[in-house]
């Protein structure tokens, strides 16, 4: 993807470079940037262009000779095929549910941690821990150690109180994946929102309190507006990461029981079904979804960034 | 009244904190139980402790040894992190201390590449690797993980390097200090903690990565997360082993994450939140 957003540009300098020494100096300034730039273009942009090209071909790698140009046929197949359409829907559902739930939980936790109490540092550390478990390990933990109907912790605890013994993953597969992801992503949201809470203008809050504002009024009219952009940032970054989620779906349900999202479908359709053209079209669709989210994300990041630059 | 409420909310925070940590604590406890005790219902909290799960995981009781995959993960993570630093440091310098024209545009270009999902380029990369005999080669992952982390690193480093006051650099230059001296004596001491945190965050992301590793590696270059996927289907009594494996493989990430705790948000939010 190329930079399509309008970034806050530095003051445009209209100085024309006439003398060769100026031009040389300009290149000397640019030189340290070039290796990283060239590397990024070569490793991320070129493969995407290739994906775009392949997406217009009917190409199954088991029949390499039967490769032919098909225009938008792959796209219409992705969008009309029931399974593939379902995976588009699953991706949306998974992303929205996980982002919303972890954002709300994260906000509650951030508000709790924003006040002083004994052992706050310890609680913060306990809360960050889930985010620092390797994603596949976390998914295995939920699948085998917590959800397992025979010896998982959930049913074990239910057994103590004489509760039912549900088969969590079979009964509510998508919810099972979502719960595991919410557990991992809530700390992420909490960290971002906590940083937002701690950057509030304390004097303003004191002044409001002196003027007799209640806690709720302060939260509603001062804290929440201030947090808005941090909430947006958390939601957008969370979406970017969770739209791409592969680990949890692959590990907990192996894409079965209607939990296959687009990244899993892309993986499955070229790695197992060898449908290169279809996989590429599905990949391009993921990119389009990401671009839509990313355009908003870049806008939020750039507004926070501008604020930082002007404050400095 | 206020005191009670404050303490009450503190207790709620403690309760939620413990609740979130409970699965990890349970995983740790189970890893020290025997397979029989690990698979009881209701759970046996006070069962005897043993290292059998760890012995099983490290392959002394038969089965594949995890060491090759741990070594591969170390090579991929450390190698790509070093390469990221090598590429990102000069780039961040050209975006902060001696900025090029339109440096914000360049910065946002880097950010936009981070938003390109992995699946966008997966197939061509796979085909490329297949045709150039790079499949199942750990160095291919080093390159890909570098591209995955470079945007984050450039953003973080840019924000750390711009914390170095320009006036101090100018003063050093007026006093006749050459660029290497300025970098070593003025820039490094201020920016070093940030650079270290950036490196730790890049390490975490590379260590965790599954999709590239799963598609592009096989027997030789298998990484630790791919090794873990071997536990997806149940294999009889194996809970203690799974827990031991998950814990051991997560330890480097937990250690790096807690070490970088203060800068974690800045890295995860791509430098947008300080």
TrEMBL record, chain A:
Its main location: membrane. Gene3D superfamilies: MetI-like. Pfam families: BPD_transp_1. It is found in: Cell membrane. It is a multi-pass membrane protein. The keyword Signal does not apply. GO terms for biological process: transmembrane transport. The keyword Flavoprotein does not apply. The chain crosses the membrane at residues 33-57, 88-113, 125-142, 174-197, 230-257, 277-301. Residues 88-297 form the ABC transmembrane type-1 domain. InterPro entries: MetI-like, MetI-like_sf. Keywords: Cell membrane, Membrane, Transmembrane, Transmembrane helix, Transport. One of its GO terms (cellular component) is plasma membrane. SUPFAM superfamilies: MetI-like (SSF161098). Belongs to the binding-protein-dependent transport system permease family. This is Sugar ABC transporter permease. It comes from Streptomyces cupreus.
From TrEMBL, chain B:
It is found in: Cell membrane. CDD domains: TM_PBP2. Keywords: Cell membrane, Membrane, Transmembrane, Transmembrane helix, Transport. InterPro entries: BP-dep_ABC_trans_perm, MetI-like, MetI-like_sf. GO terms for cellular component: plasma membrane. The chain crosses the membrane at residues 9-29, 75-95, 107-126, 138-161, 182-206, 212-231, 238-260. PANTHER family: ABC TRANSPORTER PERMEASE PROTEIN, MALTOSE TRANSPORT SYSTEM PERMEASE-RELATED. This is Carbohydrate ABC transporter permease. It comes from Streptomyces cupreus.
